[in-house]
Amino acid sequence: MGWDTPIQRKNRTIIEKGLDSGLCLGGLGCGGLELWADGVFRHHAYMNTAPWNGWRHQIPPQGQPQPLAEPNTGVEDLCFLLRVQRPGRAPQLRFLFVGQGGSWLVGEHMSRTYKYATIPTVRAIEHTAEFPFTRLKYLDPTLPVQVELLAWSPFIPHDAVASATPGAIFDFTITSQTHEPLTVSLLQITSNLAGFDQVPDYAPEHSLATTPTGVIIRMKGGRDPQSPATGEMGVFAAARARQSISAVSHNPYLQNLYYSFYTTGHLDGPRIPPRIPREEYHFAAQNAPMFRDQSFVCVQTSLEAGQCAEIRTGLTWHFPNHYDRFGVYVGKFYENRFAHSGDVAAYLLNEADLLRARSRAWTDSILDSDLDPALALALLDQANTLVKSSWYSKDGRFFLWEGLGQGGMNTVDVEHYGSFGVAFLFPALRVSALDLIQAAQRPNGQVAHAYQCNIRPADIPDGEYHRWDVNLQYVLALFRDWRWSGDPDLLRRHWQSARHALAFVQSLDRLGIGLPFTEGGITYDHWHMVGVVAYMSGLYLAALQAAKTMAEALGENDFAAECQTRWETGRASFERLFWQGDYYKAVLRETEALSSADARLSLLAAKPIDLGLHTDALNGEAFALLTGLPRALDPQRVQTMLRAILTYNVHEDGRFLANGSCPNGEFPDEWPFSQWQNPWTGTEYFFAAQLFTEGLEREALDILRNVFDRLDEAGMRFRHNECGDFYTRALSIYAAWQAWLGLLVDVPARHLRLKPVTRRSALRSPFLCGTGWGRMTIRRGHHDFSLEIALTEGHLTLESVELPFSAAPAACLNGQPLEACQSEGRIRFPQPITLTSGDHLTVTAHLSPPST
Question: Structure pTM?
C-alpha cells in the first residue's frame, strides 16, 4: 500500500504545535478569559473562582470550604456567527472558530443531529499573539470576504488604572474580495454565566439599553449576595455609520433567532414557528451548558466591491464578591470606577479608540523593533501573567500569584526575578508589593516568604518565615525600585525595615567568615542546600552594596562604611572558599579549609551536589551589575564559570538550561522534585541576563531562543510552568532585555547609562524606565555613537548620559541644540533637561575628539 495515494493524502494530518494556552483578555486584578488559536474562548476566570482565587489542584485544610471552580464552558458560551449575502444567492453562514465539533454543538439544539441545518465553521485560522492583542485571520476560500479579529483589553505601561478594566474588545475587519455588492452580518452569542453556581434558581435578569455610542446588554445572575459568582456580565456593540444593530437581550435558544438571522441578516425578522419554542424552550432558569440564558447582538453592514468595514463588539463583567480564604473582603479595584458591567461597556464604547492606540503604542514598540524575535515575543508573552495571575484589591493593594492559584502570592524570592517586569511596566505597583512585605515583617527582621490566599499579615502561617534569602531580596528590591522610581518617600518609609532584614542575615554568620550560614530554605527549596551557600552569599554581598548606597543617600555614612567593610570581608571569603578551579561550588559543608573557623564547615556531612555546578549561584553578582552596583567577584572567574555552565548545564536535545549538574558525573537523587536537574524558565531568562552583562551576547540569545522554541512547540508560550502555571519568575525576561541594552536609569541621580552588548550598527528598541516609556534608536559607527529617545508617556529628567563613547558630545531636544560637555566619561548638561510625552532627545558622542 502506497503512502502517497489520493486516499492516504486525504487521510493524513500533520500537527506541528501543541494547543494548550491563549492570551488572557482582561485587566490587572480583573480576571479574564483566554482566546486560543482555534478561535475558541476558554477559562472564563473573572468570577473569583479557583484556581484564580487559590487552591489549584489542592485540598483545602480541614474546616475550610472547597472554593468554587471556574464554570464548565463550551464554544457556545461565547462565539461569533458570520453571515454573507451575495445578490441572487443563498446566504453563507460560518462560525468563526475551527474544530471542537462546534458547528454541531451550537447549530443544533442539544446536538440533535440534522434537526436543524448544520452551520459550518471556517476552514482554518491564522493566529498571531501580540499581547494584549490576539489577532485571528479566518481563512475560508469559499467566502467572498476576508475576516480578521483583533481581540484585546487595555494594557498601558505605567497606567495601572486603565489597565485594570474588566472587559474585552472585539474589533473585526471585514474586506470584500469580490466585484459584487455584499450584505454582511456579524452575530455575537454570549451566555450568562453570572450566578452559575446557584442552579437551578440563579435568578437571571437581562436588560437592553440603546445609547448614541451603541447598544449595551446587561446580564445579572445570582441571588446569594456573597457568592463569588454573583454579579453581572455586559455585551456591547458600537454604533457606526452605515451599520445597523439588532439585539435580543434574553433568549436561551439560538434556533428561535436562527430563521430571522438566516433570512434577513438581523434579529428583528420572522421567527421559527411558535410550536418549536413550546416544545423545547425551558422556561425554568437553568445555568448549565446547553440551557444557559444567552444574549445576541448583531451588526449588519453593506460592502461594495473591494470595500472594508470595521465592526466592534465586546464583553464586560462586574463580580465584586472577592474574599480571601479567611473570609476577609478583598474586592476589586475596578469597583472604584464602575458600578456595574454597563458602566464598563459605556466606558469602552467611549474610550476604546484611545485605549487601543495607547496599548498599541507599547506593543508596536516591541514588534517594530530590532530585538531578537525570541526576546521581543517573550517580553509580550510574559506580560500576560500580570493579567492572568493578579489580585488588585478595592483598596489598591496588588497581589501576584507565584503560580496561578498555587505557591502563594507576592512570593518574595520569586518576585526577585519577576519583579523586573513589574518595575518596568507598573512601577507604582511595586510600592504596594514592598509595603506588603514590610507589613508582614517580624520584629527580629525576618521577612515572610509569601501571602497564602490571604491579604492580612496576621493570617500568614508560621511556615512562611523559614526562608532566609527573602530578607536579602527585600533589601535589593527596595534599592532597585527606589533607584528606578526616584521616590524618596519609598526609601525613607522602608529604610529601617531593610536594615532589620539585613541585620537578621548578618546574625547568621556563625562561622565568623563574613558570609551567612543557611539552615532555612531558599528559592531552591527542594534542593537541600544547607551550609554556606553560594547563591545566598552572593545575594548578601549585593545587598551590602545596596544598603551602602541607600545609607549614603540618607546621610548615614557610618553605616555605609560598615557595609563596605563587611562586603570586603565577605567577598574575600567567597573567593577563597568557593572557587575550585573551574567554577564556584554550590555549597560549603566539607572540610578543605585553611583556618580553624573554616574547619567548622565540617559540621555537616558532604553531599555530591555540594560540588555541583549551580546555574544561578552568582545571581547576586548579576543583580548588582543590572542595578549599577560594583562587582564583588573576579570577572575572569565569573566568565570561566559561565562557560562551564554552558558546557555542562545546557541540554541541546531538550533545548533547556538545567538548574544544576555535577560535572564529575554524579547523579544525586533529589526525588521527587529534582530541582537541580530541571529548567525554570525564569532562571533561564535571568541567566541570559547575566550572560549579557558579561558580554556573552551569542550565548545569551541561544538560551532565549531555546526557551521560546520549547514553549512554542508545546503550545505553552503563555502558560509556562514551574510550581504552577503562569509562573511569575519568568517576568525576568525584562532583566534580559535591560542587560542586552546595558540600560540603567538612575532617577535620583538623573543619570542614564546605555552600553549595549550588541555590536549591531543600528538597533531600535522599546524604552522603559521608572518614570516613562517610549522608543529608542541606537546607531553605532566605528568612531561615533548616538542615542535617540522618543518618549510616548510619562517623563524623564536627566543631568548626565553615559554611552560607549563620550568625546565631543552633541545633543538636541525636539530638534533644538542643547549645551553638553564631557566630564569623567559622562556627557553632562549644565541644567537638568526634562522630557515629557512626545519629546525626542538625541545624544551623539565620539570615540575621541575630532582632529583640528
Answer: 0.95
